Amino acid sequence: MGAAPAPRYADLHTHPFDVDSGSRPGAFYAAVIATDLAVAVLADHDRVDMARELVARSREERTPIELVVGEEITSRAGHVLGIGLTARVPRGLSLIESIVAIHEQGALAVVAHPLLPIWTSASEDTLAKLAEGDSRSRPDALEAMHPLAAWFPGWRGRVEALARRCGYPIVGGSDAHVIRAIGLGRTGFHGSTAADLFAAIRAGETWTAGRRGPLRDVFRVDRRR
Fold first, then answer.
1. Is the residue at 220 inside a domain?
2. pLDDT tens digits for 93-104?
3. What does each C-alpha distance from 162 to 100, 120, 202 come to in angstroms?
4. CATH of the domain at 201
């Protein structure tokens, strides 16, 4: 048997367009493709148009990093990432409806920054119940490394404990709304392509890496919400 592929890293949660931070897609794109990441998911809030445009551009330019169309979907019970989407999932659905809609596209559903004391985070009770339900509405992974959520004492340990108890894979993402945050939260996997990443998540063979982000980003106010 040959040796296993060397581990690589992906950022599953980046925002190339953000009107409040002043980040613009062209600069964000240039910064993402200059990283050492193997894969980056472009997941703006409740839209996929910019992600689709930048993914198409990266394929035309044959960039060394593989970009993936995603969306950070606002459900009624918290944010969920759709990874590998072909079309937008509407906001305002229940969490179950959002996950089912993601899966209907053959994409992955990753719960973003769970267990935080904010309305955009799914609760422990909700995620425990989903783990026991239909596979169509079961999340594919929990985001257990997030550079801003990591400032909350004990947060990462609580998410990892829930993941072990419920059998959820764990992943990491930066939730980068600004260039300096790209790659601060990462998902480790063996392989180099988005297909390898998806297979690793489905097999529960991913791990997290990264570090906390600057405190000034913790208190950043998003005027759209």
1. no
2. 999 999 999 999
3. 21, 18, 17
4. 3.20.20.140
